[in-house]
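Hello again, I could really use a second opinion on something today. I've been staring at a protein lately and its backbone has me curious. You're getting the sequence in one-letter code plus the fold written as tokens. I'd be grateful if you could look everything over and explain what you see. No rush at all, and the record is pasted right below:
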Amino acid sequence: LSGIDELDALLDTRIRDYERQQRKGIAIALAGILVSMLFYLLVVYSITNPLKALIQTMGRFASGDLADEVPWTGMKSEIGRIAAALQVFKQNAIEKIEMEKSQKEAEAQSKVLRAEGMRKMAQDFEDRVKGIVDAVSLSASGLSDTANDMAGFIAQSTRKSTEASNGANVT
């Protein structure tokens, strides 16, 4: 019986070793799962959340809302480089809007100056025409006075001729 007891003891030792290795394997597997979960959470919080924030910011920028600051620009990773590129896009969009605004203001100013120039040209033309009309009117007035003088002279000459003719007929 001692051989059977020895085999039984050896079998018990082997079973305990197997169970210990099995528990060790399960513990390692659980530790691996825990490490994987922690890595997953790290990835989610360090990559996914910043990407979501950048995507939301891009959406606001695309709709014309450029008031928000670009998040994550200080990161020293790909996320930070993406955020820096988004900041450049935002700055370019702001500059474009300012240039368009300046262009519209310049166009409005140009229209005002053009209208003012046209008004000045019209006023100058009107002033010149008025000067010409005044000069013609003055000349016409002078001609009228001359014509009146001539009519008076003709009337006087006619009277004198009539008197001389009547005087010659009476004699």
Summary: The two ends are 207 Å apart (CA to CA). The longest helix spans residues 78-170. The chain has a mean pLDDT of 91.
